[in-house]
Amino acid sequence: MRNYIGLIHKDADSDYGVSFPDFPGLITAGTDLDDARRMAEEALSLHVEGMVDDDEAVPEPSSLEQIMANPESNGSVAILVTLKSPAPKIVRVNITLPEDVLRQIDSYAASNGLTRSGFITKAAKRELEIV
Question: Residue 130 contacts by C-beta under 8 Å, 6 or more apart in sequence?
């Protein structure tokens, strides 16, 4: 299990927001601190799962010192968020497909924000009923 730093942000009339410096754009929120922590764990897990499905590299966690040295972290409270399910090892494989099927896969993947590997992984999981 790996731990990532989540930064809690709170404005006067808002929920507790959580952002992840190691995953730009990943944010979540909770109505109280306990809810924010639960939501942070869920959001991190789902985000990393999506990265793995799309054959993207999952970054190593930054240190607290690195994150807090960034001026954008000012006014935030740092929490450790545990990635409960480890990212599975990615293995490169060589497969043979008919050219027209490969074109259809690439077209579908591109129009749905997926990589070729991400599409094939999702299709295989659906066929194997590993959702």
Answer: none
pLDDT of residue 34: 93
pLDDT band at 23 (very low <50, low <70, confident <90, very high): very high
Buried-exposed string 111-122: b where 16+ CB fall within 10 A, e elsewhere: eeebebbbbbbb
Predicted pLDDT at 31: 94
Can you tell me which residue has the tokens 């730093």? 5
Give the global pTM.
0.64
At residue 109, φ and ψ (nearest 5 deg) are: -60, -45
> Structural domain boundaries of the chain?
2-83, 91-131
Class of the CATH domain delimited by 2-83: alpha beta
> Which residues lie closer than 8 Å to 28 by C-beta, 6 or more apart?
17, 18, 36, 39, 40, 42, 43
